[in-house]
Structure formats: structure tokens, C-alpha cells
Amino acid sequence: PGFRAAVEAYAAEIERVALATLPIYARALELPADWFADAFRSPFYRLRMTRYAPVPAAEGGAFGIAPHVDTTFFTLLAQNGPGLTIYGEEQASWLRVPVVPDALVVNTGELLRQWSNDRFLSVKHFVPPHRGPGDRYSVPFFFNATADHPMVCLPTCTDADNPPRYPPVSYLESQAAAQGE
């Protein structure tokens, strides 16, 4: 009882946090703080609740979730214990993401990479098998622009020496391509 209401309340609050994060990205891209407001007038998101039960070492494979990049604008991740491992491009090695109490991990996705013409890079990551004790929980919030909003290369991310690398695309179009449709 009350589970659905709790999840809906969490989704509304994490959406508020995601929307409040957009001006930070805009300013980092040398754009006005409200640059993304129209693109996220009705954001599309997915909320996933994942439980990782302990896996004995003799039974576990190499991954709980195999290496990948998110197809999102960005992902906000709440986690209750260590597990997320990212690829550090500069170090050319895998790094465990520290768990900071009462904090979210922010993970750039493919759509932000394309929209910013590779100025922001999507982060390759995986989750190793959970060895316990107890269960591990992960609650990723996959955040995207309004589903049909055309993401055209941002004006501060292109010039004569750095033409757009990607054609304009909406979230719906990008997901169709990702799914092979």
C-alpha cells in the first residue's frame, strides 16, 4: 500500500531536480540560463528501480549490467551502495564511482553528446555483479527533452572550424535508430 504514490512523488521531485539542472548545462555551454526551457517544456523520462541481489562469486559473471552508454540527455542516479563503474577517458581505465550519501550521480548521455557536438561526452559505464551483503538498489532517472523536439547542434558548439557532426534529431527519432526501426 502506498507504493505507487511514493514512486509518483519521487518521480515528480526528481523531474524538478532535473529541470533545475538544465540552467547549469546551458551556462556551461555559454548559452543563456533558460536556453533549454522550450526543449524541455514536456520532458520525456523513464524511471527504473533496480534491485541487485547478492551473487556468490562462483555464480556471477563479469557484469551485473554490461558496459554501455545511456541514450539520454542525462541520467540522474540514486544508489544505496557501491557498484557503478565508469570509464575514465583521461586515465584510460575503469573507475569505481564513490557513493556520496544524499547525492545523485549525474551521467551525460548520447543525446547531450550529439546536441553539444561532442563537447559533453557520454560516459561508458557498467555495474559489476553485486557480492553483498544484502541487496543493492539503484534508481536511475533517464531524462530527455520533449519527445519530438528537434535537437539541432547548439550554436556555441559549432563554427567554421567545427561543423556539426550529427544531423538534427528528436528523442523519438534517436530511439527509433537505437532500436533499429
Instruction: Determine the mean pLDDT.
Output: 88
H/E topology pattern: HEEEEEEEHEEH
Class by alpha and beta content: alpha+beta
Distance, first to last CA: 39 Å
Per the principal axes of the C-alpha atoms, what is the gross shape? globular
* Strand runs, count: 9
Q: Radius of gyration in whole Å, from Cα? A: 18 Å
Structure description:
This protein has 181 residues and is an alpha+beta fold. Strands 1, 2, 4, 7 and 9 form a five-stranded antiparallel beta sheet that branches. It starts with a helix and ends with a helix. The radius of gyration is 18 Å and the shape is globular. The mean pLDDT is 88. It contains three helices and nine strands.
Structure summarized in a few sentences:
The chain is of the alpha+beta class and 181 residues long. The chain contains 3 helices and 9 strands.
Key structural traits:
181 residues; alpha+beta; 5-stranded antiparallel beta sheet; 4-stranded antiparallel beta sheet; 3 helices; 24% strand; globular
Task: Please specify the SSE layout and strand pairing.
Blueprint lengths: L2 H26 L14 E5 L2 E3 L12 E4 L5 E6 L5 E4 L4 E4 L8 E4 L1 H6 L9 E3 L8 E11 L24 H8 L3
Antiparallel strand pairs: 1-9, 2-9, 3-8, 4-7, 4-9, 5-6, 5-8
